[in-house]
Amino acid sequence: MTTTNIEQKVNETWGKPFVDNAKISIRNMDVFYADKQAVFDVNLDIAKHEVIALIGPSGCGKSTFLRCLNRMNDTIPICRVAGDISLDGENIYDTNMDPVLLRARVGMVFQKPNPFPKSVYENVAYGPRLHGLALNRAELDDIVVTSLKKAGLYNEVKDRLHSIATGLSGGQQQRLCIARTIAISPEVILMDEPASALDPIATAIIEELIDELRKNYTIAIVTHSMQQAARVSQRTAYFHLGRIIEVGETSQIFTNPQHELTENYITGRFG
Amino acid sequence: MNVSTLLVTLVALALFSYVFGKQRALSIAKHNRRRLHSIPSYYGYMTALWCGLPALLLLFLWLCFETVVIEQLLIASLPSDIQSLSSGQLSLVLNDLKLLATQDLMDSHTEPMKREAVQYLLSMQATSHSLRTILVLVLAFAGAAWGLSRVIGKTPARIWVEKVVLFFLILSSTVAILTTIGIILSLLFESHRFFGEIPPQDFLFGTKWSPQTALRSDQVGSSGSFGAIPLFLGTLLISSIAMLVAVPIGLMSAIYLSEYASPVFRSIAKPVLEILAGVPTVVYGFFAALTVAPFIRHWGETIGLDVASESALATGLVMGIMIIPFISSLSDDVISVVPQALRDGSYSLGVTQSETIRLVVIPAALPGIIGGILLAFSRAIGETMIVVMAAGLSANLTINPLETVTTVTVQIVTLLTGDQEFDSAKTLAAFALAIMLFISTLILNIIALYIVRQYREEYE
Mind listing the domains of chain A with CATH numbers? Predict the structure, then answer.
């Protein structure tokens, strides 16, 4: 296949972007930063209780795409989103949709662990308290402990729940951020390279955790590590220059990619 | 040659040396470019510095010691009965002689002894001046010659100039430090004299301030009492009112500017706030005295309160307005330093912007904000012009903001303006007050800077 052929084929998405039991549906999504377009005509479904990995070279728009799913890009004044994105059939960019309530349903974990400079306990209790999820201290304690357990962190921090969270190791901080996110019982968790700032052991723990979380949550994860994508996800979407080139079962994408750009990327020819 | 002519001559000589030094270096470089260690102008600088610096130093030292040396020689030449006078009387005689010498006041009535002494003084001064001129110029020429002789290929002129530059940089920074030390020493010295007359405990814990001392021993009713508590309390009262105004307004405007305002609004509002910081305090002073104080008095009368026309409230309010920009710009800086990642983390949990600011941004920025508030507070304590114009002079021991109080700075100004004798407790009290003020603002500043620095380290 020559380069010209590749160029002709990037305008459509190969593979199977749509599913029957969609939690989030994205149709004809374009994202602009001022005049510069960052995401072009993306169509994708994210199924309930699946982990979908978004891979692709740096600057391909996958983080931008992810941040649109809970309207985190609203905080960037020059960012503009066009197209339909719906969560359980509701358009999340509808004027009636409150981004604050949306983010309580679609949580996010960031690339660099960003615990608040408060105690471990206060970090996890922060969200539930503001959303009124606990009626009294005992219920709040329960939410904090459960969330820490779900994030696989409880045993490591149970003796220092009230010491400052920024004193934890990087991996522990990231799991604390995950605990903080699941404490408000979201439906979807977006993860933007959650393990890229961590060492291999902490990464392995996070990956196990993601697999565990799939039972209760729908997860979209941006990653630069193809091994990670292969280990944790059921479906994988390959982004290239703001477009989704190919979507499919993770096993198929990594063993038998249909598009030459996907194959070039996963075999390490560029990216 | 007088000093200024000598200085101009020295500069001219140094300029010539520069040109000669550079020419010499150029002529060496003409034959072989690689023979020179540095580029020619450095040899010029080196020659000029050799010409100018030693001569300048000599001139400086000469000027420092000239008067002292001449005076000692003059004393030695005087008859022994005058030499044995007490130092006070001796200095009177010396002043008399100097006056006669400068003003040419001698006539036939002048005593022969004095006439002789004045002649001697004048001749010594003349000798000193000509000797000074000759020595300085000789040193300048010798320096230039030495510098020129050093213009040879292997002299590292560039490095030499570098060292001289470094020396001047160190010298300049030392000037600032020495000045500070000098100020502190003069304060310490004068307040020591004050505490020799008034016991420190009377000053620090006394509650009556009435700094009138008797000029004559038979004068009545002016025993003078130097209890500084009313002044400290008055200062604290006015500064606290100022902080009550400035902290909420400054902090909230900082939050609005850094978190909510659009870039366009911010680009207009920030400079406007900074203009507020640039208004001379004397303008705030008459604003307080002529506009705010009568307004508050009138308003007080309307609701049946008795407000003094120089109320602490009016002064404090205006001082607060003056301090708003400090608080707002310092807080704005520390709020902007709080990482966006923390805000994102909070937003991603479905938390609103004001909740995020209240629960995440402000707590994270708090040490810096407190540091800024302490800096502003120390400025409020030391503020002088507004209180001189708008606060009263009577040292009332009260915490009622509607009454007149006076502050430490106001009292320092009143004690030291006009003709003063520097040997009474009344004037010396100003130095004791100044040192108290200095110590308290110093402590506040150190705490504030410490807190701010601790905070900066957290995110770097």
Answer: 3-266 (3.40.50.300)
**B104 vs B431, residue with greater confidence:** B431
Q: Which residue of A has its CA nearest to B260?
A: A75
Do B324 and B273 touch, CB atoms closer than 8 A? Answer: yes
Structure tokens at A241: 């220059």
Please list the alpha-helical segments (H only) found in chain A: 3-9, 62-68, 99-105, 120-131, 137-150, 154-157, 170-182, 200-213, 226-232, 250-255, 260-266
| Whole-number Cα distances in Å, B304 to A51, B289, B299, B307, B309 | 73, 21, 9, 9, 15
Q: A13, A20, A91: which is closest to A50 by C-alpha?
A: A20
Sheet of A106-109, strands arranged across: A14-15, A243-249, A235-240, A51-55, A218-222, A188-192, A106-109
Residues of A in contact with B350 (CB under 8 A): 100-105, 107, 127, 130-131, 184
- Asked if the Cβ–Cβ distance from B342 to A131 is below 8 Å, we say no
β partners of residue A82: A30
pTM: 0.74
pLDDT, position B58? 93
Residue A147 — very low, low, confident or very high, per pLDDT cuts 50/70/90? very high
Amino acid at B275: I
Q: Do B348 and A126 touch (CB under 8 A)?
A: no
Among A75, A118, A127, whose Cβ lies nearest the Cβ of B349?
A127
The answer to whether A127 contacts B350, with C-beta atoms less than 8 Å apart, is yes
| Residue A255 confidence (pLDDT) | 87
ipTM: 0.89
Q: Over chain B, what HEC string results?
A: CCHHHHHHHHHHHHHHHHHHHHHHHHHHHHHCHHHCCCCHHHHHHHHHHHHHHHHHHHHHHHHHHHHHHHHHHHHHHCCHHHHCCCHHHHHHHHHHHHHHHHHCCCCCCCCHHHHHHHHHHHHHHHHHHHHHHHHHHHHHHHHHHHHHHCCCCCCCHHHHHHHHHHHHHHHHHHHHHHHHHHHHHHHHHHHHHHHHHCCHHHHHHCCCEECCCCCCCCCCCCCCEECCHHHHHHHHHHHHHHHHHHHHHHHHHHHHHHHHCCHHHHHHHHHHHHHHHHCCHHHHHHHHHHHHHHHHHHHHHHCCCCCCCCCHHHHHHHHHHHHHHHHHHHHHHHHHHCCHHHHHHHHCCCCCHHHHHHHHHHHHHHHHHHHHHHHHHHHHHHCCHHHHHHCCCCCCCCCCCCCCCCCHHHHHHHHHCCCCCCCCHHHHHHHHHHHHHHHHHHHHHHHHHHHHHHHHHHCC
Distance CA A114, CA A180 (A): 11
Domains of chain B in start order, with CATH, are: 3-155 (no CATH), 225-458 (1.10.3720.10)
Q: Which amino acid is at B134?
A: I
B288 has a pLDDT exceeding 80: yes
Cα A271 from Cα B320, distance rounded (Å): 58
B339 touches chain A (CB under 8 A): yes
- Residue contact B350–A131, C-beta within 8 A: yes
State the Cα–Cα distance between residues A2 and A145, nearest whole angstrom. 57
Mapping DSSP to helix (H, G, I), strand (E, B) and coil, where does residue A251 land?
Answer: helix
Q: What is the pLDDT of residues A111-141, one digit of tens each?
A: 889 999 889 999 999 999 999 888 899 999 9
B347 touches chain A (CB under 8 A): yes
A72 close to B (CB below 8 A): yes
